[in-house]
Amino acid sequence: MGFRINNLTDNSNTVIREKLGGFTVLEYIKDLSCTSVMDATAQYYMSQSNMRRKQLMIELNNSEIMMKAGAMQYTIGRMEMTTGINGLGGLVSGMFKSAASGTGTVKPHYRGTGMIMLEPTYNYIWLIDVDNDEVVIEDGLFLACDTSLNIGVTARSNFSSAALGGEGLFNMTAKGKGVLALEAPVPAEETVVVELENDELKVDGNFAMMWSNTLKFTVEKSGKTKIGSAASGEGLVNVYRGTGTVWLSPLASYS
């Protein structure tokens, strides 16, 4: 009993962009399924601009992963899917975490041996090795992870400023040891990594993708006074204080 997959990783139009543990990021060099001249023209320029379809492939070997609801495209092998929710208490907790962090209440768990292919995306897939650490993730980036990681939420230090700054009051966290997959608007190569040691970072905008939970995160006025903030033209800024790491994507486009 077993399976073999042909014309996937052995396809000349497919490259393995990254691999970490049982997680593999596949990228398609060209979109070969164009059916019109307009489609072909658009796909050509998209490919030249690094806008290529990507897929996350997850291999299970008597192991378990968790993923974003609705992300699965197909599975091969013997595995079972559960909701990851235990009873009414788990459902209530899941509803709070989903409302707080902007993610779905139910995150399917897949356990067993086989392969899972997620839906293709033009966004960029990051694979992160969380090594006995705890990181905070910007809203909506979660894609999948090993269930050895504990997924939770963390609150802003000052709720009123967070609301005024256009940020959510809570963020998702990943704690422990395992692989975390994120779906981000920019490639990891464009990420600026800032390591703080008892210092502070001020960011005008929500382009911090991820940061250490050891940092104190607040939203504050850019100046000491209202007049100073108005004069600087910045208004409110996101502030990260303490010792830890912040991953910035300053070239990301936000509406």
Automatic annotation (TrEMBL):
Name of the protein in its database record: Uncharacterized protein (AIM24 family)
SUPFAM superfamilies, sorted: TRAP-like
Species for this entry: Paenibacillus hunanensis
One Pfam family this sequence matches: AIM24
InterPro entries: AIM24, AIM24_sf, Trp_RNA-bd_attenuator-like_dom
